[in-house]
Structures are given as C-alpha cells and as structure tokens.
Design goal:
The complex is a heterodimer of chains A (170) and B (462).
Chain A: E1 16-19, H1 29-39, E2 50-54, E3 59-63, H2 72-76, E4 82-84, E5 90-92, H3 102-106, E6 113-115, E7 120-122, H4 132-136, E8 142-145, H5 154-168
Antiparallel strand pairs in A: 1-8, 2-3, 4-5, 6-7
Chain B: E1 4-8, H1 12-24, E2 29-34, H2 44-48, H3 62-67, E3 70-74, E4 78-82, E5 87-90, E6 95-97, E7 100-103, E8 107-109, E9 122-123, H4 128-138, E10 145-149, H5 153-164, E11 168-173, H6 185-197, E12 201-204, E13 208-213, E14 219-223, E15 228-231, E16 233-236, E17 240-242, E18 258-259, E19 271-273, E20 278-281, E21 288-289, H7 294-308, E22 321-326, E23 329-335, E24 344-349, E25 354-361, E26 364-373, H8 377-392, H9 399-405, H10 410-416, H11 419-424, H12 451-461
Parallel strand pairs in B: 1-2, 1-7, 2-3, 7-19, 9-16, 10-11, 10-16, 11-12, 18-20
Antiparallel strand pairs in B: 4-5, 5-6, 8-17, 13-14, 14-15, 20-21, 22-23, 23-26, 24-25, 25-26
Helix pairs in contact in B: 1-7, 9-10
The chains are: A alpha+beta (170), B alpha/beta (462).
The structure holds flavin-adenine dinucleotide and iron/sulfur cluster (SF4) (2 copies).
Flavin-adenine dinucleotide is lined by residues 8-14, 33-36, 41-42, 44-45, 77-78, 104-107, 126, 154, 157-158, 243, 246, 275-277, 292-295, 297 of chain B.
Chain lengths: 170, 462
C-alpha cells in the first residue's frame, strides 16, 4: 500500500546512506532537497539530514538517521508508531504518533525530532528507497548503496575532526 | 516438552517479553495475566486530552494474542506465587503451573493520608480506569476546576493534557518547587513562572491538611498555610509504590522493587522480573535502582524475554531519562541529573527560556538537564547526542573543556570524541529488533506517495 515514491527500485541487499565527509563542501543542497520532499517547503530547519559545518577543522559532513538494526526509537515508542519498510527504513506513522517525544529522547544519534507544527515525530525514511539528498548532492558526498556496515565512516571522520581541532588550537 | 511461560502484567514490560519469547520459541506455551487490558500508560494523557481514542493506548487485543498463540487472562489478578510448587494463583481460584515466570506488575500511585481522601471526586490518575473516572466526573462541566496534589513528572504530564482541554488548574506541592525529583531549583523556577503565566495556580511549600465536601459537591481543600481552595476534582499524585504485595511469602528478594540481576532474574533462577516493579542494574553504577519509565520497561521486557527463552543476554543497565512538555515549555533529564557534586556546567537564561546543565565525573557526562521552548530543534538535537554520551559512557578527554566553553556546540564534541562510532556497535540484544506487530487500527508502515519527491528526483535525474 502507498509505496509509490517515484520510479522503480531494484530489489537487493538493503542499502544505506554512506557519507564521504571529505567530499562534502557544506553547500547544503541535501538539506534543501530533504526539507522539500519531506515537508514541501525549502526550509533547511525542517530537513531530517543536517550538515555539520566545522570550519575550523575544515570538515563538513551531512548526518542523518542510520536506520539502526536495533533501533532505539522504534523499541521505545509506546504506541508502536515506528515500523519498518522493505528498505530497512524505520518509518514514523503520523496517524499513530501521539507526539510524546520518547523516540527523540531514546535515539542516541539525535536524529529524530518532533515537528512544531504537527507535533509528530519526523525522521529520515530513505524516501521510500530513492533518497533525495543523495540525488541532490553535487559531489557524491552522500551515496545510497549496498555498503559495508552503516556508519563505518564515523571513525575516520571523528579522528579527523579531533586531530584538526587540536592542530588548529595549538 | 514445551516450556511453560507465565507472565504477570500487561504493560510494556510484559508485552515486550511476550513478543520476544514468541520470536525465539514457537513451541513454548505462554500465558499472560493482567487485570487491565494490555496497554501503554504513557499514552493515557493523549486520551485525556482527547487527541486519541482509548483504544489507541492498547498494545494488544484478543486477535493479536491469538495470532501469537498466547493464552491471555485479561481481568484476572495473580494473588499468590508458590515458587516450590511452581504455580501462581488467580483471583478466580485457578492455579497455573509455570517453568518460567515473569513478574511485570508495574507500580501504583500512593494514597494521601488526610481526612476526606475517601470522598467521591478525590482520585488518582494512573490507569485506564482512573482516566475514565476523571472524564466521567468532568463531562458536564464547561471548565472543570481540578487540583493536583503533588507536582511530579507523571502528574505534570496529566496536567499538560488538562491544560490542552482548557481546564481550570491548580497544583499543591509540599517541596519548595515543582518537579522536585526531576529539576533543580533554578530550572524549576523557570517552570514555576512559566506555568503561573499560563494561568496555573501554584502552591509550593504547602501540604494538604484536609479535604471536605460542600453541599454543591465541590471539594474544599485546606492547606497547612491556611489557604483554602475550592475545586470540582482533586487528583492525588504524590508518588508511586511497586506492586509486589502478593509476593510476601514467596521468598523472592525485594527492596524497593524486586531485586534482579543483569539477566532480569530474581534470586530464584526460574523467576524473572521486569519494568517498574524491578530493581535492576543501572548504567555506570554498581547500585540497583527502580527506574519507573517506559524505555526501561521495554529494555527489561526484551532482556527478560530473551533469557527466559533460553538465550543468554546481559543488560548493561538502565539510564534514567524523562522528557516532559508543560504547557509549551519542555524539560528533559538524564542519568544523575541531581548529583550534588560541583563538577557541573550550568547555563541559565530564564528570559530566553534556556536552561542547560551537564554533570561530569572526570571526563564523562553522568547526568544532564535541559529546559527550553517546546520543540526547539536545537535542543532536541542536542539532547539526543547527550543521551549518546551517557549511553556509551564516552570519555570526552579534552572535549570536556571545549564543552565548558562552548555549551551549545555539543555536536562537535560528540563527533570528535567518537561517540557515534561507539554507538554503532552498542546494541541491547545483539540482533536486529523487529517492529512490534500490534498496531492500533491495523496500520501498516509505508512511505506515502509524495508529489514533491517525484518532481524533485525526476527533474534531477533526467
Ligand atoms: C499517566 C502516565 C504517564 C506516563 N508518562 C511517561 C512518559 O512520558 N515517559 C516515560 O518514560 N514513562 C511514563 N510513564 C511511566 C510508564 O508508563 C511506566 O514506567 C510503564 O508503564 C511501566 O511498565 P510496566 O510494564 O512495568 O508496568 P505497567 O505499565 O504499570 O503495567 C503493569 C500491569 O500489570 C497489572 N497488574 C499489576 N498487578 C497485577 C497482578 N497481581 N495480577 C495481574 N495483573 C497485575 C497492572 O494492572 C498493569 O496493567 C507514565 C505513566 C503514567 C501513569
Ligand atoms: S532515529 Fe536514531 S535510533 Fe532510530 S533508527 Fe535512526 S539512528 Fe537509530
Ligand atoms: S513521538 Fe511519536 S513516534 Fe516518537 S515515541 Fe512518541 S508516539 Fe512514538
């Protein structure tokens, strides 16, 4: 039912959003695209992908929900409003969400919010299998592919931010 | 032979254990006994505020129990547990045998020991029944006058629901400020003035002496400072106690709650406990505590269910956490937010409605407190990341000093200290979690067709 977000998808291994921080220039195209497809307005504040702008460390990187295998948001929800689809995306049902914020509190990545207007939880849903952020990114800093474990890019990125910060401040 | 599991309770701890056992063992027999329908108490405020129907709070129904092949005895209570005979006794006299027993009986509100507490119109507000009772008592009044005794976390959630309905509200709290177990005096001061400006009549530092009834049915509540208040309904929300009276002779070890180890096992190896009634391991501490919150009940239920089904998983411990909207102001607390050590970072800007506090032990964040305008995206982002720091018990190293100087730049410290990377490998059960199968109204998960998306993606890729 209702699974008709643009185009046909290839059926295969679950894909995930892979981020390549070194390629990100901080242009915010992904935020604009995301807010447009998720809420119909070009308002980066409503985007569920967020670009980190670390100027001092010369590092930029978009950041969004990992669609964890063992999703803290989903298990915490008291009314089972968060389910999954065939892409492994954790989806909030607006009809079921009561706006209690427990998912926001439970997600340790800080990637599920409540939209002030609707008072419903909002998070990345992988656009039903064709993420607009990856389409929008001009430098392929966001790629949607069958990849090594989700989040494997965190480690090197953390090290770089840490190292560059120390270098810039010493 | 198939293992016989008996589960007492129908809250989130019980239903999560039930589903976990069934996921791992198709053959086992499962019996669930609960005096209330299976539901989430957390959803009650949204029924009270008339945002959802009562059934939306339910987490299982007869068809779902049947689908899981669970024998559900709804409306029954367990009156005794016999660990030697391995049986439980029900109110209807039935005795059920068990191989593995889960006690997930939750907690109940305390009564107020003052004259007049037995009057009609003086009630608790904790269960499906209480919520119905309040809705019935107020259905004819245009703007019912409700007094809440006790200004704690759960009381405030219900207060917020009544505020949404436009009721006339007052609060009496014995301590010197509201939310005494959730907020410190500074943050509570902000909440106090916010609530007052929203028309809520607050009486802090005062205790109720008596309640009397007028001829027109109103209740007159007398405080120890001489104030009297006239209202239609009095709600008693002064605290909770764990539901373990029926275990008195059982030999199961209890303190505030039923003592459990990291597998949610009691001192008797085939008896487990979970949720509000359990006193279990705490993240980053050797002490055991009762954490009467939904996420702990879920964790406990899933850990207990896994171990009862014969696999072995150990719980790292629960993290105390609360988030609360009070009439447009949002507060959130984590871990040892009330620790009195002086290694703290506090930012307080009452006029800008900003309050933040991080409590440190060496270079680890061990507690946090936030208050701000409801749905402030910046705050919501940051509190998730602070939860990540607590959950991983990350050593922040030099980034502690950075945060002391840049308290609003949590993201940079969070990433540089490698918290997300540590989180990726931290799981509860070490296997993918399944979405719970029961959903109100049978709603399925699907991304809805979305015109904006089609336009955008097609334009870009052509
Ligand atoms: C109004 C309200 C709002 C809340 N809001 C929040 C919130 O925002 N965030 C949060 O984290 N937590 C919140 N909580 C707390 C949360 O609901 C509890 O922590 C959670 O329900 C505990 O789950 P449980 O399964 O341990 O127990 P419960 O949900 O209490 O379920 C126990 C069940 O067992 C039944 N039972 C008890 N004894 C017996 C017996 N002898 N025989 C048979 N059945 C028995 C009880 O009737 C009950 O149905 C709220 C609670 C209330 C009341
Ligand atoms: S919102 Fe958070 S907890 Fe939920 S799947 Fe995404 S990263 Fe995991
Ligand atoms: S805010 Fe909505 S989706 Fe999130 S936990 Fe609450 S009901 Fe579930």
């Amino acid at each position: 039912m209702g699974q008709t977000v643009s185009k046909q998808r290839k059926i295969g291994m679950p894909k995930s959003l892979k981020i390549v921080p070194d390629k990100c220039t901080g242009c915010m195209q992904c935020e604009l695209a995301c807010s447009w497809v998720q809420t119909g307005t070009f308002a980066p504040s409503k985007s569920v992908i967020r670009v980190n702008v670390f100027d001092e460390e010369a590092s930029y990187a978009p950041y969004t929900c990992l669609q964890c295998d063992e999703a803290w948001c989903m298990t915490a929800c008291p009314v089972n409003a968060i389910g999954t689809d065939q892409n492994g995306a954790k989806l909030v049902s607006e009809e079921l969400c009561i706006g209690c914020h427990l998912c926001t509190l439970a997600c340790p990545f800080g990637t599920v919010f409540t939209l002030p207007k609707t008072d419903k939880a909002s998070k990345c849903n992988l656009c039903g299998g064709d993420p607009a952020c990856a389409v929008a990114c001009p430098t392929s800093a966001i790629v949607y592919e069958e990849s090594t474990p989700a989040g494997d890019w965190f480690g090197p990125w953390s090290e770089k931010v840490n190292k560059n910060y120390v270098a810039a401040n010493s | 032979m198939a293992t016989q599991h008996v589960i007492i309770g129908g809250g989130p701890a019980a239903t999560n254990a039930m589903e976990t056992i069934r996921e791992l063992d198709q053959q086992a027999t499962i019996t669930l006994i609960s005096d209330e329908p299976a539901h989430s108490r957390m959803a009650l405020p949204y029924w009270l505020s008339s945002q959802i129907p009562a059934a939306h709070t339910h987490t299982a129904d007869a068809a779902f129990f049947q689908q899981l092949n669970v024998d559900a005895r709804i409306g029954q209570r367990v009156t005794a547990v016999d660990p030697n005979g391995q049986t439980v006794t029900l109110t209807d006299g039935d005795k059920l045998a068990f191989d593995k027993l889960l006690i997930a009986t939750g907690s109940s509100p305390l009564d107020l020991p003052v004259p007049g507490n037995e009057l009609a119109g003086v009630q608790n507000l904790w269960s499906l029944g209480h919520t119905q009772q309040l809705l019935d008592a107020t259905k004819d009044a245009e703007q019912p006058r409700v007094l809440m005794i006790g200004a704690g976390f759960i009381g405030f959630i219900m207060l917020n629901a009544m505020h949404k309905r436009g009721w006339n509200l007052s609060v009496v709290e014995r301590e010197s400020h509201v939310l005494p177990r959730m907020l410190n005096a500074d943050a509570a001061g902000m909440v106090n003035s916010w609530l007052t400006s929203r028309g809520i009549d607050l009486h802090c530092g005062a205790a109720v002496e008596s309640i009397a009834e007028e001829s027109d049915g109103s209740k007159v509540v007398t405080l120890d400072n001489g104030t009297t208040l006239s209202v239609d309904v009095v709600i008693v929300a002064i605290g909770i106690k764990t539901n373990l009276d029926f275990l008195d002779e059982s030999g199961i070890e209890t303190n505030q709650g039923i003592l459990v180890n990291e597998q949610m096992q009691t001192n008797l190896p085939n008896i487990f406990a979970a949720g509000d009634v359990a006193e279990g391991p705490v993240l980053g501490s050797d002490k055991k505590e009762v954490h009467p919150i939904q996420p702990t009940a879920v964790d406990h239920g899933r850990i207990a269910g896994t171990n009862m089904a014969g696999e072995t998983v150990a719980y790292r411990g629960s993290l105390s956490m609360n988030i609360l909207d009070c009439c447009g102001l949002q507060t959130a607390s984590f871990g040892r937010w009330d620790d009195t050590s002086d290694d703290v970072l506090t930012i307080s800007n009452p006029t800008g409605l900003v309050y933040r506090k991080l409590i440190w032990q060496e270079d680890q964040v061990v507690g946090a407190l936030f208050a701000g305008r409801a749905n402030d995206m910046g705050m919501l982002n940051d509190l998730g990341m602070v939860k990540g720091m607590l959950q991983t018990q990350a050593r922040m190293g030099a980034w502690k000093e950075f945060l002391q100087e840049n308290p609003f730049d949590i993201r940079r410290a969070y990433i540089a200290a490698g918290v997300p990377q540590q989180l990726v490998s931290s799981t509860l059960l070490g296997r993918p979690s399944q979405p719970r199968k029961y959903r109100f109204g049978g709603k399925v998960s699907a991304v809805q067709a979305n015109q904006s998306h089609t336009v955008f993606v097609d334009a870009k890729s052509s």
